[in-house]
Amino acid sequence: MTKLPVPDILKKLNAVFADHGYEAYLVGGAVRDMLRGKKAHDWDIATNAQPEQVIAIFNRVIPTGIAHGTVTVHFMGEEIEVTTYRLESTYSDGRHPDAVIYAGKIEEDLSRRDFTMNAIAVNLSDGTLCDPFHGEDDIRAGIIRTVGNPHERFGEDGLRPIRALRFAAQTGFTIDPDTFAAIPAARDVTAKISIERFRDEFTKLITSANPKGGIELMEQTGVLEQFLPELAAARGVIQADERGHHHFDVLDHLLFALQGAVWLDLERGITEPDTNLRLAALFHDIGKPATRRVEEKEPFGTIYTFFGHENVGAKMTEDILNRLRYPKVTARYVSHLVKQHMFHYESTWTDAAVRRFMVRCTPPDCRDTNPLHDELTAAYHDIFDLRICDVCGMSGTPAHMKDGIWTENILELQERMSVIAQEQNALSLKDLAVTGKDLMAAGIPAGKHLGAILNELLETVIDDPAANNREQLLAIARNLYERK
Prior knowledge:
Strand content: 5-15%
Number of helices: 24
Strand order of the largest sheet: 3-4-5-2-1-8-9
Distance between the termini: 86 Å
Structural class: alpha+beta
Oligomer: single chain
């Protein structure tokens, strides 16, 4: 019989339950992770003690989900979720049980869970497994399988099919054929889940180790068309022509670009994925289907063009992320990255051109931020990383720092931008040596002309940083006002 080591904190927690005549089991993702040899994080406990009884035996308990039998116990500096064994009735809304019925045995509680790999419990008294559905065997074999009939399980809760796809991307497991076949059949129930719950699962999927494979499963099961039709529409949009820039259709290009973010993380030893970069990589060419044109051009013959796709794609990206209820700041920022991903640096760029590039790459929410601010610096790096992901998407292979991406002189551009940032050149209205109040004091009335003049002053100092002094800018402003 398999035994797992019980962490000291859970031994002590179990002692409290046992002293009051109750039993406790570790359940959920922690068990799955331990069986996979991974480090477990959050502790979820199942017990035969009812919520009121848990509240009575521990000093600090928060009734976080008491209607569903769940409370949060603050114990030895950690928050531990504790849920009473339960059975669930019918699911009229395809998401929540109509009633929660407390059960007397852990086996009954495990029978209501979604997948066999999640229906395993560890007895906190001795570390033995309770595994009535052979979840350990499925974990060892790398299989995602529902507890019981997949059509019944998915018919109860429309989020479960999405979780199956997410788990496949995270673990690299294969979805059992019967379970996989039940996903498209559950489309009507899946449609009932809240968009926020889909968003949360989608975020976990794209920040997994194999987001490309996860989205391909979404496509195969119809989930992609159901929740992200804009991405599904990129399938079959050919962009490979005699110029040799691309080898894949738009969707495969986007998926390889997304996987490129994983390759970058692996190369750099990054363990916490950047959701913004993953989203930008996935959506950076989402505007191509709408802007695709077929032209005949010597000496190439038939070519495909996508003029302005970055602008169309930026708008589409913001709309999609708003629809998925991502924070507004996330939608704006990722949209900004998409809009700016098409740049082609050459060493012949003047310093003024580099400064203009820096201004253009400044996110809307950072327009009044000093160029050395961490958020602004991170935005520049994200744009460079997105460009690398784009190159990965063209070849379908990792673009290492020593490889082709640097033929575009990105490293040189980074160095030039760093020098300009250190020189504290004016890159925003906030950096100007004059303010709107200064211009009004000089006789220029408030209104649209004032804002236009300030922007022209910024253009002036971007071209000539030495012009950023009060006297010179006031003189220029007066001349501009008189001309207007």
